[in-house]
Amino acid sequence: MISLHELNPNEYPVDEEAKENLETLLFRMNKIRELWAKPMIITSGLRNKEHQLKLIVKGLSTATKSNHLIGAACDVKDADGSLGEWCLEHVHILEEVGLWCEHPKYTKGWVHFQIVPPRSGKRFFIP
Question: Beta strands 124-125 and 100-102: pairing type?
Fold first, then answer.
């Protein structure tokens, strides 16, 4: 199972909103982990503003208001694309669990999950 430490490995301080978001994210991600039935490696969870800015400067993100900043998103390693494929084939599970994903064709090597709907409202969205 995924641990809370995996979602906040840098032990960033959290306010009440981030604490609640991380707990919700943990619960929902463990549901996906259980149903996918394979190990999951969290590559990015909670970020602070400095961490996010470094990703933007490196060209690895364009999101100045990333859900990672409020503990509402995480990225999971997906080297072979199988997790992204599984998600596309099991949209009903994502709906039941309450998770949204950046479309896997835009996130080669990882899957981005979040607990809040994007502006488009689509289960899979373009980052």
Answer: parallel
Q: How many whole angstroms separate alpha carbon 79 and alpha carbon 54?
A: 23
**In the structure encoding, which two tokens stand for residue 29, read together?**
């991600």
N-terminal to C-terminal alpha carbon distance within the chain: 27
Q: Which of 126, 38, 30, 42 is nearest to 86 (CA)?
A: 38
CB 29 within 8 A of CB 2: yes
Q: Average pLDDT of each block of 10 consecutive residues along the chain (127 residues)?
A: 96 96 98 96 94 83 86 98 98 98 95 97 95
> CA–CA separation, 42 vs 86, rounded Å?
17
* In contact, 43 and 110? CB cutoff 8 Å: yes
- Counting DSSP H helices and E strands in the chain, the numbers are 5, 5
Take residue 33 and report the two structure tokens written for it.
């982990």
Q: What pLDDT is stored for residue 117 in this prediction?
A: 97
What distance in Å separates the CA atoms of residue 54 and residue 25, rounded to the nearest whole number?
A: 24
- Tokens 């149903």, located at residue: 35
pTM above 0.85, yes or no: yes
